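for the recovery benchmark. tokens below, seq after
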């Protein structure tokens, strides 16, 4: 009969998150995890598996506590306000990160995901969720007239996703409010509805006359 666990999974995973976030994946050993989690190495292997598995579980826990919570709070707001509040919080969190740890998800995308298919899946899934959140907000704003329809919601959602990733990476070396807010100003200008000509975006058609004339 298996012995019941004598520790709280969430508490020890939070400790693992903090250590991985501070030191990264490669610089962390099972011994390091045992020390910070207050467990024996045998307990870690029995409860979670190897270091790679502990990391994935820690990353999933981090995502649940950060992104899922943030979307749950902001998606209740009007579309433009939801997107704006999302970026304001990201910038504030980046500037308050005095140790410049950055975002654990983005760190994982750069350090671990290229070499580990399962971690790559976790990171890609979250990025798709972020993109979907932006797209839902954009579509709702285009429907109620508070967001321009000149660009497609899909294209703008991907632009917002890239801006988010850029902010999180820049924050580790240049945590400057003017820089980060300057990144989102032109993006929000694109969202501003144009009352004069708010037509849906259409890609330019290829001019076949040049091909026929041999130009």
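predicted aa per position
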């Amino acid at each position: 009969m298996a012995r019941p666990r004598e520790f709280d999974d969430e508490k020890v995973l939070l400790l693992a998150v903090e250590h991985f976030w501070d030191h990264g994946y490669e610089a962390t050993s099972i011994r390091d995890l045992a020390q910070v989690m207050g467990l024996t190495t045998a307990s870690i292997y029995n409860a979670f598996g190897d270091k790679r598995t502990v990391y994935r579980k820690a990353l999933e826990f981090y995502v649940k506590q950060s992104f899922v919570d943030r979307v749950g709070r902001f998606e209740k707001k009007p579309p433009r306000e939801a997107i704006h509040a999302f970026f304001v919080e990201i910038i504030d969190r980046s500037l308050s990160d005095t140790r410049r740890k950055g975002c654990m998800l983005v760190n994982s995308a750069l350090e671990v995901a290229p070499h580990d298919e399962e971690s790559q899946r976790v990171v890609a899934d979250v990025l798709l969720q972020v993109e979907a959140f932006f797209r839902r907000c954009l579509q709702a704003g285009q429907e109620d007239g508070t967001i321009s329809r000149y660009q497609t919601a899909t294209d703008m959602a991907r632009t917002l996703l890239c801006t988010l990733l850029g902010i999180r990476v820049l924050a580790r070396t240049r945590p400057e409010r003017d820089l980060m807010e300057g990144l989102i100003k032109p993006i929000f200008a694109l969202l501003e509805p144009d009352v004069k000509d708010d037509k849906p975006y259409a890609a330019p058609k290829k001019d076949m006359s040049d091909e026929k004339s041999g130009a």
